[in-house]
């Protein structure tokens, strides 16, 4: 069994350490061509795709379509449900192939990592699917170095910018027309969401009690109301609209399910919960957004297809 040579920085994720202990044996390093490998996934048939974030995990059964250059998003529409997956391809760096079960990683799966060795997605071949395509893909993309990974060090952390005045922040917030505009506003604040939300008035962002999220999810399930849950990491953003199952609790984890998609939210990671109001699609959009203790984004819950129904649900459920 080969021993992996770890870089001094950054600290490896637990999943990467598990794979490192089995590198060259149960785990093989593939060429640093994640985009080419993503394009080849459609040949593997039915897949179980797991997306990792700091406060959640999403697993879904799907068939990867044949991706073409410049189209780094996937959309699936079913009865009363819709899933859109957007890939930030510049963040995808390296790929590991898991041949036999390793830790929590199943056999015949691929683990995609960002530039710092943090897991983005795991793609496993469903049982009785894929044929020899998985083995052919691994052989075709095998890296000549099976002893170490090439992971760049984390760059210097940027200092926070001084926020603009209240009137400028609220003016630019109100002028945002879509998520891209709002993302640009956040970028000007170095993505310091908690600082931005705390700087504007309650009519834009208002902090609510964390237990509101559990109440809203339970009430939505009782009313059979579809909601949209968005989660993500540096390389993937998932937005899923569905009438989610009643929340099932396991310790601090809240589990939701719909038609093959399984979501686990770690409530212990949620430090603050904000009710946001911002322009979108010709109307004011209301959302609940969870942040961790450092003020970083965890997930967003918003309306399904009916904004008015969603606002009514919030009116009956928000704990101030």
UniProtKB/TrEMBL annotation:
Identify the residues that the record assigns to the Haemin-degrading HemS/ChuX domain, covering every copy: 21-138
Name the domain of life: Bacteria
- Coiled-coil annotation: which residues? none
Entries under InterPro entries matching the protein: Heme_Transport_Util_sf (IPR053733), HemS/ChuX_dom (IPR007845)
Which GO BP terms sit in this record? iron ion transport
The identity of this protein, by name, is Haemin-degrading HemS/ChuX domain-containing protein
| Originating organism | Alcanivorax sediminis
Q: What is the lineage of its organism?
A: Bacteria, Pseudomonadati, Pseudomonadota, Gammaproteobacteria, Oceanospirillales
């Amino acid at each position: 069994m080969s021993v992996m040579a770890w870089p001094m920085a950054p600290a490896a994720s637990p999943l990467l350490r598990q794979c490192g202990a089995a590198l060259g044996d149960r785990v093989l390093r593939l060429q640093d061509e994640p985009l080419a490998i993503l394009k080849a996934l459609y040949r593997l048939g039915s897949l179980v795709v797991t997306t990792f974030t700091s406060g959640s995990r999403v697993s879904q059964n799907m068939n990867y379509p044949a991706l073409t250059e410049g189209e780094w998003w996937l959309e699936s529409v079913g009865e009363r449900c819709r899933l859109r997956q957007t890939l930030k391809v510049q963040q995808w760096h390296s790929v590991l192939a898991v041949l036999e079960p390793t830790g929590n990683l199943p056999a015949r799966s691929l683990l995609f990592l960002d530039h710092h060795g943090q897991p983005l997605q795991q793609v496993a071949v469903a049982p009785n699917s894929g044929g020899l395509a998985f083995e052919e893909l691994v052989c075709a993309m095998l890296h000549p170095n099976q002893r170490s990974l090439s992971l760049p060090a984390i760059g210097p952390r940027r200092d926070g910018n001084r926020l603009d005045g209240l009137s400028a922040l609220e003016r630019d917030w109100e002028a945002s027309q879509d998520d891209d505009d709002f993302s640009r506003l956040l970028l000007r604040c170095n993505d310091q969401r908690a600082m931005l939300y705390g700087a504007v008035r309650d009519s834009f962002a208002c902090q609510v009690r964390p237990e509101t999220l559990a109440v809203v999810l339970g009430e939505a399930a009782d009313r059979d109301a579809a909601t949209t849950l968005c989660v993500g990491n540096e390389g993937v953003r998932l937005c899923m609209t569905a009438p989610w199952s009643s929340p099932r609790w396991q310790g601090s984890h809240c589990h939701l399910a719909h038609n093959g998609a399984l979501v686990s939210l770690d409530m212990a990671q949620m430090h603050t919960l904000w009710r946001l109001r911002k322009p979108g699609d010709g109307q004011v959009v209301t959302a609940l957004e969870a942040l961790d203790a450092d003020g970083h984004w965890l997930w967003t819950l918003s309306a399904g297809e009916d904004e008015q129904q969603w606002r009514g649900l919030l009116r009956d459920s928000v704990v101030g």
